[in-house]
Design a protein that fits this description.
The complex is a heterodimer of chains A (320) and B (615). Chain A is 74% helix and 1% strand. Chain A is an all-alpha fold and 320 residues long. Chain A has a two-stranded antiparallel sheet with strand order 1-2. In chain A, helix 12 packs antiparallel against helix 13. The longest helix of chain A is centred in the middle third of the chain and has 37 residues. Chain A is globular and about 85 Å long. Chain B is an alpha+beta fold and 615 residues long. The chains are: A mainly alpha (320), B alpha+beta (615). Chains A and B meet through helix 2, strand 2, helix 6, helix 11 and helix 12 of A and strand 8, strand 9, strand 10, helix 7 and helix 13 of B.
Chain lengths: 320, 615
């Protein structure tokens, strides 16, 4: 297990190097740079050109790449031209927001999704199951941004139960109880918007897993032995049906950490998704490159996490 | 066919339908790339507009910004307390560089405008006046300007504002380590010794002499008219606040981001990065006591700003998307103000190239496909911009005439006649100029008999961009010109300007937009040695007029007006670009707000410290 993990991590490194080179190269193919959006007749083109040279934006991509890598090994991740501050500060501001949002959404997905899947699988083809399955079909068909807007309109504006934007109320002292409560309050709508749509996969996987498993011989045997019905479901069937979900857990976390662009836009939530999109469209590559690298690391770690979870859940799968 | 298979078939058909619908709905979430892009517009602006027979009354209400108030009609007495909730409409968090000398993005400027104020005021003609904290006196004879800081003006931390804080702005912006992009305009470069200071050859700017705490005398190389029209820098920077901070690090310093100082009626209490700013009353504000307890600003996404206004969550929205207005015009409890925007949309013609070595434009009309003035004139006649304004923008954009917009009301010459919409006349002009369809393909050839294929570059962004580009292409086709979209599609913002800058041969015609500054001087866009001169147009006459317009001779406003009238007329005559649309913007304000206005120029009655609520 440990050996496997270490080996996986070792393979990761060249993957990241290739990823970063690719990103840099592709970035250099994109027209424009961080200064090309400065179309202001009050700023002479020479001033912009001078700035460009100062920042080394005119250098060929491999020179820029070399400078970037060297700086990074010295712990300098560069400065965002657009935000005028170190890249790590810019990302740091957003990262915690995204971590909270994805944590909340993940908890909600499993907290709601697992029981729904269990019930739906256990009483399949009942009215209850049909309702739940109906909901999952609806969920599959509903785009997240539409759903996000609808619950924003309903609970945010019409009923006024929750704040409609931002990650925290204005003017609160970070760390105070009010601040934390306000943070949670701001998380409710966006995380429900993500979770209620995001859980449909979980429900469906679990449902079909359970239906399949409960016809297996060992379940019949367990029942024949006189194992209690609740225990049949909760231990024997559940554990065997959860494999596909466990396999996706790592990826799910990564996808959520990447930030949900639509939800962030609708709720004016300052997270990573928006940051990434904005830094691409403003050609703020110093931020975009670090973010891509970060996502790359996340994706690799997510896959690893999934493998490890799988091997824990299913003793048949042993990694060699 | 049995009942069973019939229902199966129905189910299958339904699935197909669902898929088809889903496919239609795709790709509509493209984001607005920039304020220079085509901007989105209201509903009712679909492809039908190709049919230009009936221009009016089809796409809903048509508005005129002149029918709107510029000052809220609530004239009740301000209660002297209450919090004004301001919504900053933006789909990105604000960057948080909260200093006038350092900020880059517009959202930051909007935040800054609530707690810091310009030292100099402007009238509606964008000429500096002496109603602010700083007074100036120009002495043309010895090319000096004396600046006097009023007594009693204080920073939010209680320190008095001195003339040194004003001079400090120049010293920071001009410093070789200064990270921003300011300091290249007349207000800086014309100061004696500024260039030496900027190059790092001098420790101070020799043309600035501080007399005492309140007074300084600036010596200029020349007193240009642009100086008093937005040229002087008009913000102070708190020197004591930035003590010990390297100039290169100022933009990221906590002095800028967490506890910024200003001199405005409200002071910053706390900043939640990118999201919100809480401000409270600054009792020692130099003009008098502010009418509110405080201001709370938060970023609201464009998709929910209208709702936020309706529920009263926001009293006043900054940067409200004008294209949403027709949908929410009837909202209860909200008053809509409107004013003209300092920007215009235009169709440009590529008439030359940028000469990198000499740093100037090479105007080569004879090599350009659109180098013939008659061809351009015919294309202007073929466009019905009045209908475009009404149908695509509900009248909130309207037909443009000259390159000096009515935003500069004093300078805009509305007596100049521009080619009106008249496709028959366009055809006539083309016929007369020798553009005739000689090979019978339905399109005209050049007078030399060569096929004439023109490429039109247009930017993506917003719902209107595509139908609008198609509309223009169709209009030109209707008079027999073969115009097609460059790359066969709309072009993303960065790529678009990259192509223009590099004079991409795939672009003959393009649609762009410019924001105009407070000074009317168009040199920064159409001068012979400026890279933003995208049409690459340059003639002696035009250059001469623009230079005269910003020379000391033009300090006389009447004389300057004459010069710019002549230039506007020349541009209509030569048409290197065709201005297509002027635009207005709307500002929603809750009914409870009083003493609030969006007029151009200084108005004592609607200054931020007078803003109040009446309940």
């Amino acid at each position: 297990m440990l050996k496997f993990t270490i080996r996986r991590l070792l393979i990761t490194f060249p993957q990241l190097v290739i990823l970063s080179i690719l990103v840099f190269f592709l970035g250099s193919l994109m027209p424009g740079d961080a200064l090309s959006g400065l179309l202001d007749p009050n700023i002479p083109a020479e001033a912009i050109q001078a700035k460009r040279e100062e920042l080394g934006l005119d250098n060929p991509w491999y020179i820029q790449y070399r400078d970037w890598i060297f700086a990074m090994f010295q712990g300098d991740f560069g400065t965002s031209i657009f935000h005028q501050r170190p890249v790590m500060d810019v990302i740091g501001d957003r990262l915690m927001n995204t971590v909270w949002l994805s944590l909340f959404s993940t908890i909600l997905i499993y907290l709601i999704g697992l029981p729904l899947g269990l019930v739906s699988g256990r009483y399949n083809d009942s009215l209850l199951d049909n309702t739940i399955t109906g909901y999952t079909y609806l969920g599959f068909a509903t785009p997240q941004f539409i759903f996000g807007l609808v619950i924003l309109w309903l609970f945010g504006y019409n009923l006024g139960w929750f704040p409609t934007g931002g990650s925290v109320g204005p003017g609160l002292e970070p760390g105070s109880i009010d601040y934390i409560l306000s943070k949670i309050n701001h998380l409710v709508l966006p995380s429900f918007a993500i979770a209620l749509i995001g859980l449909v996969g979980t429900v469906q996987y679990l449902r079909s897993g359970i239906i399949e498993t409960k016809q297996k011989d060992f379940i019949i045997l367990a029942r024949a032995k006189g194992v209690k019905e609740s225990s049949v479901y909760n231990r024997h069937i559940f554990r065997n049906s959860i494999l596909p979900i466990a396999a996706f857990f790592g990826y799910e976390i990564v996808a959520l950490l990447g930030g949900s662009i639509f939800i962030e836009m609708i709720y004016s939530y300052p997270g990573m998704g928006r940051l990434f999109l904005d830094s691409i469209s403003t050609r703020d590559f110093s931020v975009a490159n670090v973010l891509i690298l970060f996502y790359g690391i996340l994706a690799i770690l997510g896959a690893l996490l999934s493998d490890i979870i799988l091997s824990i859940v299913d003793p048949r799968i042993r990694i060699k | 066919m049995g009942k069973y298979s019939w229902s199966k078939l129905m189910f299958f058909m339904m699935l197909v339908l669902v898929l088809a619908l889903a496919a239609c709905g795709g790709g509509s979430s493209e984001e607005e790339s920039s304020e220079d892009s085509g901007d989105s517009s209201s509903e009712g602006s679909s492809e039908e507009s190709k049919d230009e027979s009936e221009a009016e009354g089809e796409s809903g209400e048509v508005y005129n910004y002149e029918d709107f108030n510029q000052v809220v009609s609530n004239d009740g007495e301000a209660t002297g307390e209450g919090t004004l909730k301001v919504g900053l409409t933006s789909d990105t968090p604000f960057e948080g560089t909260l200093n006038w000398n350092l900020y880059q993005g517009n959202p930051d400027a909007e935040v800054l405008g609530l707690f810091d104020e310009p030292l100099l005021t402007m009238d509606e003609d964008f000429q500096f006046t002496n109603d602010g904290a700083l007074n100036f006196e120009v002495n043309e004879d010895d090319k000096t300007v004396t600046f006097t800081m009023q007594e009693g003006v204080k920073w939010h931390d209680g320190e008095p504002v001195t003339i040194d804080d004003y001079v400090y702005s120049y010293e920071v912006i001009g410093h070789p380590d200064y990270p921003g992009i300011r300091g290249a305009t007349d207000g800086f470069t014309l100061i004696e010794g500024y260039d030496e200071y900027k190059a790092g050859d001098a420790d101070s700017i020799s043309g600035i002499e501080v007399i005492d705490d309140q007074t300084a005398v600036f010596t200029y190389k020349e007193i240009a008219p642009s100086l008093t029209a937005g040229g002087f820098w008009y913000y102070a920077m708190p020197e004591h606040h930035y003590e010990g901070v390297e100039i290169a690090d100022m933009a990221e310093a906590p002095q800028t981001r967490e506890n910024p100082l200003g001199i405005g009626p409200y002071k910053v209490d706390s900043v939640t990065p990118g999201e919100s700013v809480v401000m409270s009353k600054f009792e020692d504000y130099w003009r008098g006591e502010p009418n509110l307890d405080g201001i709370e600003l938060s970023v609201v996404s464009p998709s929910s700003i209208a709702n936020a206004l309706e529920t009263g969550e926001v009293d006043y929205a900054i940067n409200f998307p004008t294209d949403q207005y027709p949908d929410v015009a009837e909202m209860d409890g909200v008053e809509w103000l409107a004013n003209i925007d300092g920007a215009y949309t235009y169709i440009g013609f590529k008439l030359g190239e940028w000469n990198e070595e000499e740093g100037k434009v090479d105007y080569k009309p004879e090599e350009s496909k659109v180098g013939d003035k008659e061809l351009r004139r015919a294309m202007w006649h073929a466009m019905d911009n009045e209908a475009v304004g009404k149908r695509f923008y509900n009248g909130l954009r309207w037909e443009a005439t000259t390159l000096i917009t009515p935003y500069h009301a004093e300078w805009h010459d509305d007596s100049i006649e521009t080619p009106e919409y008249d496709p028959e006349k366009a055809k006539q002009i083309l016929d007369d100029a020798g553009y005739e369809d000689t090979d019978g393909d339905g399109f005209r050839e050049t007078p030399e008999g060569e096929p004439l294929e023109l490429n039109f570059a247009s930017m993506s962004g917003g719902d209107t961009a595509e139908p609008l580009a198609n509309y223009y292409i169709q209009s030109w086709k209707d008079v027999g010109l073969n115009v097609s979209l460059t790359n066969d599609r709309l072009i993303e913002f960065n790529t678009f300007y990259d192509m223009l800058e590099n004079d991409d041969p795939e672009v003959d015609i393009y649609q762009g937009a410019w924001g105009v500054g407070s000074d009317v001087d168009p040199y920064g866009l159409y001068g012979p040695d400026v890279a933003f001169n995208y049409p690459r147009y340059e003639t002696e006459e035009s250059t001469k007029l623009m230079e005269e317009g910003n020379s000391p001779d033009a300090l006389d406003v009447e004389k300057r007006k004459e010069i710019y009238n002549e230039w506007q007329a020349l541009m209509v005559e030569e048409m290197p670009v065709v201005p297509t649309l002027y635009r207005a913007y709307v500002v929603p304000v809750n009914d409870r707000v009083t003493n609030f206005g969006i007029e151009l120029g200084h108005d004592e009655e609607t200054l931020p410290y007078k803003w109040g609520v009446t309940e």
